[in-house]
Amino acid sequence: MAKFAKNVDTKAVASRQAANVMKQIQGKEISSVGTVRNYESSLSKVAEYANRELNCGLKEITPEQAYQYLTDRSVEVGQKTLDMERQAIQSMMHHVSNKLSTDATLNVIKSESQQILTSRSYTQEQISMVASSQNERNSLSTKIAHTAGLRAHELLTIQRIDERKPDERPALESKFSQRNGLRYTVEGKGGLVREIQIPQYLSERLEQYRLETPKVIVDRGINYLTRYDIAGGKNWSNSFSAASNRTLNWSGGGHGLRHSYAQERMNELQKHMTRELALEVVSQEMGHFRPDITEVYLR
Fold first, then answer.
1. Of 26, 41, 91, 98, which is most buried with the most CB atoms under 10 A?
2. Residue 1 located in a structural domain
3. Per-residue model confidence as pLDDT tens digits over 110-165
4. Based on the domain organization, do 180 and 72 belong to the same domain?
5. For 100, what's the count of Cα atoms within 13 Å in the CB-facing half-sphere?
6. The dihedral of CA 8, 14, 15, 21: what is its sign?
7. Which domain holds residue 223?
8. Residues 97 and 125 grouped into a single domain
9. Do 100 and 120 have their domain in common?
């Protein structure tokens, strides 16, 4: 694994690594000068992340680390930029680092940036009003999404923690402090499995919807193996927006519940810890592991 000196110009190093990769691809696999330029710019960003966060060189990153990078980037950039970076990494892994077989591809990661910027948080009273306007399955999903800070598709991936362990990521002891509930896991962006907490009264209702045999649900072209007969994904998002418009005459979308979760948790945690630590805790609970992204949810 590569090691980098503390005082090194990381941007310069990253640029050289990206340029080196594209030299091996240009003319052989890619003839378009514009594509080469775009890929090199994208790979410079990837190299900076690899050098800084993974302590390795650009060509050393694995598909799993690429997913981690793309997941982190999904809350910062739009879909066009995210797709360009994914395609650049994929091309490098096909033709230079050989981390992917030529018939394999990196899964598309959906940008969350626009959702974050346009979403609007809900008060607890407003959430109750919206949930009351939905059918039972959608209402339960709304309450779980709010109290656990879930994305729409994550509702389809809920699983007991004794059945599936979360991936190794930073975890403070203060995670989920001030709240009680049962622990589950969900699969987030890039396939990251993280731990969540669902209040006991909602957990009891959730278990009433447990399927005897897991079933596959296709949402936005992606297959999810779900263990509970509750709403999630696009169908739940549509239900939530329609109910919000009916009851409140506006909708911040289902993603607005993640804003509500972040803001409520920050208010709770800052009563007994510093704001900096609270941001770190909430970033872990929400699955983006970036305190600066938590800040965006507080707008």
1. 91
2. no
3. 888 777 777 789 999 999 999 999 999 999 999 999 999 999 999 999 999 999 99
4. no
5. 24
6. positive
7. 115-297
8. no
9. no
What are the tens digits of pLDDT across the range 203-215? 999 999 999 999 9
Written as six digits, the tokens of 262 are 């972040």
Q: Is the pTM of this model over 0.70?
A: yes
Q: Tens of pLDDT along 85-101?
A: 999 999 999 999 999 99
Inside any domain, residue 285: yes
5 occurs within a structural domain? no
Half-sphere exposure of 172 (CA within 13 A, CB side): 17
Query: CA separation (Å) from 244 to 39, 164, 183, 249?
Result: 41, 34, 29, 7
Same-domain pairing of 189 and 56 = no
Three-state SS letters, 232-249:
CHHHHHHHHHHHHHHHHC
pLDDT digits (tens, 9 = 90+) for 21-55: 999 999 888 888 999 999 999 999 999 999 888 88
Distance in angstroms (rounded) separating the CA atoms of residues 151 and 253 = 11
Tokens of 264: 């409520």
Domains held by the chain: number:
2
Count other Cβ atoms within 10 Å, centred on residue 128.
16
Closest C-alpha to 72, from 112, 115, 120, 18: 112
Q: Indicate whether 96 and 136 sit together in one domain.
A: no
Name the 3-class secondary structure at 30: strand
pLDDT value, residue 193: 93
Q: Is residue 258 part of a domain?
A: yes
Quote the pLDDT of residue 8: 65
The verdict on 19 and 80 lying in the same domain is yes
Both 128 and 30 in one domain: the answer is no
DSSP alpha helices (H): ranges in 113-199?
113-118, 124-132, 136-148
Tokens of 220: 């936005």
